[in-house]
Amino acid sequence: MKEVVEFLKAHPVQYLATAGLDGRPKVRPFQFKLEQGGRLYFSTTNDKPVYKEITRQPYVELCTCGENWSWLRLSGRVTFSQDRSIKSRIIEEAVPLIKAVYKTPDNPLWALFYLSLIHI
User: Number of C-alpha atoms within 13 angstroms, CB side, residue 104?
Assistant: First the structure.
């Protein structure tokens, strides 16, 4: 897991693939937030199409590329979390954009999730 986390941190733009509401594949840039307890955390807002997609069909893939054709692909199941301490840590450690978007761990739009059943 340590190597996965290091790779995700070193390559901050990942691409998340979901099953769209129309049944077609959807891919968009995403950003790994942090690892805690062996869980890889990500987030979105609950007013975006991606939120509706992952609540309807929680299996996703995430891919990112590095130097010299190196790459990482993770498959897993989205599991939502309301863990305020994780949200607080993300706000403390995150890039300024995250603070600007969520402002507080209690933001009702914030949909925090981690990947379970991960396959690398």
Answer: 3
Q: How far apart are CA 45 and CA 59, in angstroms?
A: 18
Dist. CA 85–CA 78, nearest whole Å: 19
What is the side-by-side strand order in the sheet with 25-30? 25-30, 14-19, 59-65, 71-81, 110-119, 39-45, 34-36
- How is residue 83 written in tokens? 């863990």
Interior CA angle at 106 toward 111 and 90, to 5°?
A: 65
Task: Encode pLDDT of 45-95 as tens digits.
Answer: 999 999 999 999 999 999 999 999 999 999 999 999 999 999 999 998 877
Residue burial 30-59, b: 16+ Cβ < 10 Å; e: rest: bbbbbbeeebbbbbbeeeeebbebbeeebe
**Main-chain phi, psi angles of 38, to 5 degrees:** 80, 5
